[in-house]
């Protein structure tokens, strides 16, 4: 079951190492209190999370820009829960969300354990579609930045996963080859199919345990990487 010949391990960050959903919920709780937004947090999140994923898909596909993503995911959610929020409030919340998001730094269970396990054996890297300013803060504030030799983000490259350009850029940055590299992430389209398309190995972090193609290598918790690496 071990994958032979791997030298470079590339991770996604959000929803893979950094527990985005937990940190996001804590951030909304904070900024809603700051701005006296009287909504039920659980109800808000139940609508926000799928809306956010839909907007991220549009963002990956270059159909919307960063500002549209940040504004519309909030605007649509407030409409869903029938909360009156004007554009001034939404813009302020969208700014404060990014400002405070990286002040919460819960990692997935076993993140530190698996990074300590992999670090002596492989060169470790990040490839992320997340916003540059936020991703750097997340890595540093959660104290995992030192594990990674390189961080490649979509704003730096100008395209997003699964575009092969971002994968080739990340590989070229560290003189890595697709055939000796592996991508680990939570998104089948962006992380797994994107990596496989250029000849990398890939492992799907299926932490939500959704039904997925059995041909795709997958794990439900990070420590299961030890079965492959």
UniProtKB/TrEMBL annotation:
InterPro entries: HAD-like_sf, HAD-SF_hydro_IA, HAD-SF_hydro_IA_YjjG/PynA, HAD_sf, PGP-like_dom2, Pyrimidine_5'-ntase_YjjG. GO terms for molecular function: 5'-nucleotidase activity. Pfam families: Hydrolase (PF00702). It comes from the Bacteria. This is Noncanonical pyrimidine nucleotidase, YjjG family protein.
